[in-house]
UniProtKB/TrEMBL annotation:
Pfam families: Thioredoxin_4. Keywords: Disulfide bond, Oxidoreductase, Redox-active center, Signal. It comes from Candidatus Magasanikbacteria bacterium RIFCSPHIGHO2_02_FULL_41_13. This is Thioredoxin domain-containing protein. It comes from the Bacteria.
Length: 196
């Protein structure tokens, strides 16, 4: 654990650790379960900074296809993003039909279309139809208690880890305050090299 700065004996910045371990049966995972590096991202689909990191994450997945798995976890910042929760729920409704990552990509790629909308259900349903999802099932799943419950599990684990914002990244369980593609690549390669 690293302490940076501080007054007296109280740290002002403590490196956070993942509060809930990755669960292959529950988490949304891209990449092999045998990967040497696990990158967990706590994110909010309406967060502009999260959308800006998406090209970096896609490049990382392409650069480390055998050694990196990426885990997406919801941390909707509902106090500042009115559509954070509806978008997270839409991604989970798509997940029930096996299309989480496809909906994930559409939500980030088209964030400017829906971020300021008063009602998103029609737009999200259009996205679902474009992914060849069963429209009626998708609409029903938007209001299903277990769909919301799945989002809240991730949100609770973010709160348990003491997270305050998005995006927040963890590399192999430890918070990683990385900002650029090169910083991510260097940190990931270091873990891979250490685990040879």
């Amino acid at each position: 654990m690293a302490f940076l700065g501080g007054k007296g004996n109280k740290p002002t910045n403590v490196t956070k650790t993942l509060a809930a371990p990755v669960n292959e049966a529950v988490d949304h995972i891209k990449g092999p379960n045998t990967a040497k590096v696990t990158l967990v991202e706590y994110s909010d689909f309406q967060c502009p900074a999260c959308a800006q990191y998406e090209p970096i994450l896609r490049e990382l997945a392409s650069s480390f296809p055998n050694d990196l798995r990426i885990v997406y976890r919801h941390f909707p910042l509902i106090q500042i993003h009115a559509n954070a929760l509806p978008s997270a729920i839409a991604s989970e409704a798509a997940a029930k039909q096996g299309k989480f990552w496809e909906m994930h990509d559409i939500l980030f790629d088209r964030q400017s279309q829906w971020a300021d909308e008063v009602s998103t259900e029609s737009l999200f349903t259009d996205y679902a139809v474009s992914l060849d999802l069963d429209k009626n099932k998708f609409i029903a799943d938007l209001t299903a208690n277990d769909t919301l419950g799945r989002v809240m599990i991730d949100k609770s684990s973010a709160e348990d880890a003491g997270l305050g914002g998005t995006p927040t990244f963890f590399l192999n369980g430890t918070e990683a305050q990385l900002r650029t593609l090169e910083e991510f690549k260097t940190a990931i390669q270091k873990i891979i090299d250490t685990n040879q």
